[in-house]
Amino acid sequence: MVIKNNSNADGQSDPNGGSPASNQPNSGSSQRDSYAEADIIRLSLFLRRNPMPILVCSPDGTVIKLNPAAEKLLRVLHLPELELLPVEHEQFVQTCLAGTHTIPAIERIVGDRVFAITYNPVLSFNLVYLYVVEITDYRRAEDEFLQFTEKTIDPVKHAVMQLRATSRQWHWGLQDFETSKPANQVVFATMDGCVFAIGDPGN
């Protein structure tokens, strides 16, 4: 019987029965693993240091991680993370990962505060990041602007209607008025449809 003795460069037996070359790690695989580890570290730092609230979701929609900003927000709101999410949350996560179309920002109202939630896929890790932005001040300013616009437009509409109503009278009567008025008068109309004739300051 022949006993094969596998030895390394120092003459010692290899207990795994392989050659020294076969036990050396693959350099390409090792490099890829290093890159993957670096990506994980960068992603972790991004989550931890980002001032924006971020929720990390698995493919089934489960929230598996919150960054410190998200944890703080939920503590202030006294709200579990699931109550912050829309009803279609699970469907949005799956659609986002499938890449069929982009999910628009979803608005959620919590008390007197308004938040916009955006779904962003991280395909390399098969995860979805939810970014939460408060837009309360923006929506309040928008409402105030609309109210101001309505108050401003209504008088303008009324003035335009009056001008249209009197336009026919102007068309037929203005020529006679112009020929009969004193030469030193100027005719003008206001936004509410009133017609005035005043003396010409130049004379």
UniProtKB/TrEMBL annotation:
<protein>
    <recommendedName>
        <fullName>PAS domain-containing protein</fullName>
    </recommendedName>
</protein>
<feature type="region of interest" description="Disordered">
    <location>
        <begin position="1"/>
        <end position="34"/>
    </location>
</feature>
<feature type="compositionally biased region" description="Polar residues">
    <location>
        <begin position="1"/>
        <end position="33"/>
    </location>
</feature>
